[in-house]
Design a protein that fits this description.
It contains ten helices and 15 strands. It is α/β, with parallel strands linked by helices.
Amino acid sequence: MQGHRFIGFNPSENQQSIFEQLLNIFMQLLTYTNGDAAEALQWMNELDKQYQLTNPEYGMGDFIEDLKQNGYLEENTVTGSFKITSKSEQTIRKKSLEEIFGKLKKSKSGNHTTFKPGQGDEINPETRPFQFGDMLEQIDFTQSIRNAQINHGIESFSMYEDDLQIRETDFKTQTSTILMIDISHSMILYGEDRITPAKKVAMALSELITTKYPKDTLDIVVFGNDAWTVEIKDLPYLQVGPYHTNTVAGLELAMDLLRRRKNPNKQIFMITDGKPTCLKVGKKYYKNSFGIDRKILNRCINLAAQCKKLKIPITTFMIASDPYLQKFVQEFTEMNQGKAFFAGLDKLGAFIFKDFESGKNKTLY
C-alpha cells in the first residue's frame, strides 16, 4: 500500500490557460462596460497592446473564437456585432461572489435552519421514543432493531412499539429577500465609480441567495427618482441614470413586494452610497441634493421603523467611505435595529460590519 508521495512543485503545471486568464479580465471589463461586449473587447485589445496579454500562438482573434465556441459570446452574422450570453451573465455573478464572499462555502441543503425539531427536511442526529402520529419514514430502524435485540434477545426476534426510535428532522425556513440598488447620479459623481462595486455586491448577493438558498424568493428593486423591479439577468447591464436618490420609493416598493409573500421570514438588502435626496409628493418631485434634508430623511427613518415593527430587518451595504454620506446609514440602521456593511471603494472585499441589534462591530475581509 502506497502512502503519501511528495514531488517537486512545478508552477507551470498549476497556471491557468491563456484563455482562462483572458476570460477573467473580460468578465471584469463587462461589469465596467455594463455588459457591452463590443466595448469590453475594445478594452481587451488596448490592454493587449500595452501589456501583451496574448502571444503569437494565441491571439485576440483566437480568444474571441473560443468565447463563441464555449457559449460566452454570440455574434450577429448580419451586423457583425457581439453580445454576451446567459452563461456570461451567470459567470459574472459567480466571479463577483468569489471576489466578495469567497470564504463562504456552498450548502448542499440550500436553506436556513431554525434548529426547531419537526417534520422538516434536515436530519437531526438526536433520536427519541416513538409517539402516536409519527411518520413511518421517521423511524430510525438501526437504533430500533438494536433496542429490540437488547430488550427481547436475538434468538426469537420481535419488535414492539417501545423499541421504536424516531430520528427527527429540523424545519427549514424560506426567506423572502428584496435587493435594493441605488442607481442615482451620485453613484458616478465627481469621477468616482460607485456603481461598479455596487453591481458586484448585488451580483454576489443574488448568486449567493439563488445557489445557497434556492428555495428563497428574491426580488430586485432599483431606485433613482422612482423605483422599479429588474430581473437577476439584468444586473450586469445596470447603468446610472440622471436620477436623484428616492430611497423612500425603493423602500415602499420593497415593502409592497414583501406583503405579497407568504413567508414569515422577510428581509431587505440595500446597496447605496448614502443620503436620500428625492421624495415624490403627489405627481411632483421634491429634491434637495445639498446636505441632509430632514423632510426626506424623516420619511426614510419612519419606513425603517415600520420595517422593524413588521420584523423586516434591513442590511445596508454602504458603497462609499465619506463620513458625511455614512451619517444617514448610521441613523437609518439604528432605527431599524438592522445591520450595515461600510465598504471602501478601494477594498471591495473588506467590509466594516456593524450589527445595531447586538451592538457589535468587526472588520470582514
